[in-house]
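Hey everyone, long-time lurker, first post.

I ran two proteins through the pipeline my lab uses and got sequence/structure pairs for each. Pasting them in order. The first:
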Amino acid sequence: MLLSYRFKKRYFALAVICLTPVILPVIAITAFSIYLYNSKNNIHQADAAIVLGAAAWEDKPSPVFRERINHAINLYKTGNVHNIIFTGGIGKNSEYAEAIVGKQYAIAHGVKKSDILIEAESLTTLQNIKNALKVASSTQLSKFLIVSDPLHLKRAVLMAQDLGMDAHPSGTPTSRYRSFKSKLKFLVRETYSYFIYLLLRI
């Protein structure tokens, strides 16, 4: 029994060592593709912008969420989209759904209430997109810009396209993730989440 355990432990360690030269380049290439993804965006017009949820601080959007909303408002005011779909439920330590906070902020900044749709139940990126699709299914909306921070978009757009959506990235140019440290932390998290999604997708 003891010999078997030691053998398995050594076999696992050997497998990790042997696979490292293969795994590390794959991780690096994937991270690089996530980093560059939003720069490939050539789609500028759609029926609606889907704003992925982020934290709400009471009845105000967090700085990260605020910049996502501001980008969607700019797309709306420039005629690139005609509707905005806000996503996100009630997060930790908050009494307000992210989508409702986003809607209120957008109305206060000149977006018509009739041009806003919301889903206020989701807690994850995949739920954001699935619920936004349900909301849009009762309308004539069929082409979407996914609005979020640039490093979030490759995974989010892949999820949307897997659901059959005509979806394209539109990263906020004023992302709050500006410093090298904050970008690196976000990139590491997104790279991990991207691989997990790919595994679940198989």
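...and the second, right after it:
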Amino acid sequence: MLRFLVRRSLGALVIIWLISAVTFFLFFALPSEPAQLACGKNCGPEALEIINKNLGLDEPVPVQYWHYLVGIFAGRDFDIGHCSAPCLGYSFRDNQPVWETLLDRYPTTLSLAFGGTVVFLVVGITIGMVAAARRGTFADKFLSSLSLIGNSLQIYFVGTIALWLLVDTWDLVDRPEYVPISENPAKWAGGMLLPWLVMSIIFIANYSRMTRSQMIEQLGEDHVRTARAKGMSSRTVFFRYAWRGAMAPIVTIVGIDLGSLFGGAMVTEFTFTLHGLGRLAVDSVTEKDLPMLMGVMLFSCTAIVIANIIVDALYAAIDPRVRLA
């Protein structure tokens, strides 16, 4: 297991480095005048020269990238001040350190993604298992139909209806807001409950159908039929043999869906006015804030890569044959 994780971690470092190099080139080399984005339209040559010098944009792009990498690990000095490690530069919009802004916004997105993942995995897998166990019955057809309906819905539509009905009309749940879990765990969960449920609808539909198909496939495998022939109970066969075999592909899909989860979080944050990384990314694009957008991209990609390593470890624990790959 240790060698497996070391190989995955080294590969992840290479991936993160490639992502940082490509995004830096796209953001800072392709724009003809990045300083113009920082200064605005009504900016004279003298102001542009000062901004280029202050932000280190007057150097060749490879040198800028090298200084960017050094700043991440050792900090960096700008004419506007010292940026402590990990330094991702200063925002074009408000001259605030990018790293500090990311740390302020990330807990909201992490809470949304973590809670939403727990909801759609628990609910989706449970629905899929029930449908597989009741294959061909009314319960199976009803749950499968609900999955198809849920897969066709959109977050912004469901979120707006849910706000109107559950919050403004019936007052069944708290109005969505982010409260740090360290301050009040109950308010944290209450404020994020509706966004979790809304963001999970599409994923619940996908995972319920996937779980159902995997469970049905596993129930037809030779080792499952052998277990039944030996006289084992249906519950033992279902959970000990079929369920474990069905979970391995689902764990893999979870790793693939992490990028989609960030996209869903972005729409959910806008729908419920939550200030997380998704909303920050959209604001950075609108305001052409290249350092902030670069920071969001690098931060999010690193988080997704780390999460994929965790998923790989879980997959290897479920199926030891993966460790040999």
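Reply from user beta_strand_b:
Welcome! Quick read of the second one: Strands lie at 76-78, 81-83. The first strand starts at residue 76 and ends at 78.
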